[in-house]
């Protein structure tokens, strides 16, 4: 079931080393399992997000708690070839029978198309709001467009 799932499933041990990479992960990220097993998660994480990721990962491994078991985490990721994608995932923490943290499993979905659609809608909304604000403002006389002056007798000056 895990191997055949279209949803990407990854398990990384407590050091962040990938131990499970299913077919859904292969399809989403473009890497075959044999290319990534034994590697850390770094190649998936944009460089500017790595420090924050590893701080959170280590804290989770030390405390054995994460809010992302119940909340969806939305982050950018990098697929093979360097293409940036948007992903959402939940985390399941795995423990040995002794209670020791073994690592974290993630169930991941590619939401790039939805994210791009939402971004385009936000841009259109911002443009529409700007137009509405412009419509609501009193019009200023256009430069160089002087209305003909009328003298007190009603004749053009």
Per DSSP E runs of 2 or more residues, the count of β-strands stands at 5
Largest sheet: 5 strands, antiparallel
CATH arch. level architecture of the domain at 8-111: 2-Layer Sandwich
Low-confidence stretches: none
- The top level CATH class name of the domain at 8-111: Alpha Beta
In percent, how much strand structure appears in the residues? 15-25%
Spatial strand order of the main sheet? 2-1-5-4-3
Inertia-based shape:
elongated
Query: Rg from C-alpha positions?
Result: 27 Å
By CATH, the topology of the domain at 8-111 is: Beta-Lactamase
- Calculate the mean pLDDT score and round it: 86
SSE arrangement, N to C: EEHHHEEEH
SS field, number of helical segments: 4
Give a written overview of the molecule:
A hairpin with a 5-residue loop joins strand 3 and strand 4. 34% of the residues lie in helices and 24% in strands. It has a domain at 8-111: Beta-Lactamase, CATH 3.30.450. It has helices at 23-29, 33-36, 47-63, 112-136; strands at residues 8-13, 18-21, 73-78, 84-95, 101-110. The model has no long low-confidence stretch (mean pLDDT 86). The longest helix is centred in the C-terminal third of the chain and has 25 residues, at 112-136. It is α+β, with helices and mostly antiparallel strands and 157 residues long.
Main traits of this protein?
five-stranded antiparallel sheet; 4 helices; alpha+beta; 157 residues; Beta-Lactamase
Per-chain topology:
Blueprint: E1 8-13, E2 18-21, H1 23-29, H2 33-36, H3 47-63, E3 73-78, E4 84-95, E5 101-110, H4 112-136
Antiparallel strand pairs: 1-2, 1-5, 3-4, 4-5
């Amino acid at each position: 079931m895990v191997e055949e799932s279209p949803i990407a499933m990854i398990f990384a041990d407590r050091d962040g080393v990938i131990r499970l990479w299913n077919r859904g992960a292969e399809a989403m990220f473009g890497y075959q399992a044999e290319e990534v097993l034994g590697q850390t998660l770094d190649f998936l994480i944009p460089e500017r997000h790595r420090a924050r990721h590893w701080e959170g990962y280590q804290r989770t491994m030390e405390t054995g708690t994460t809010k992302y078991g119940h909340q969806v985490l939305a982050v950018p990721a990098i697929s093979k070839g360097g293409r940036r994608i948007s992903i959402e995932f939940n985390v399941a923490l795995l423990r040995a029978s002794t209670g020791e943290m073994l690592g974290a499993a993630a169930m991941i979905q590619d939401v790039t198309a939805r994210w791009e659609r939402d971004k385009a809608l936000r841009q259109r909304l911002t443009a529409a709001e700007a137009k509405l604000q412009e419509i609501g403002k009193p019009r200023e006389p256009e430069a160089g467009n002087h209305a003909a002056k009328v003298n007190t007798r009603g004749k053009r000056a």
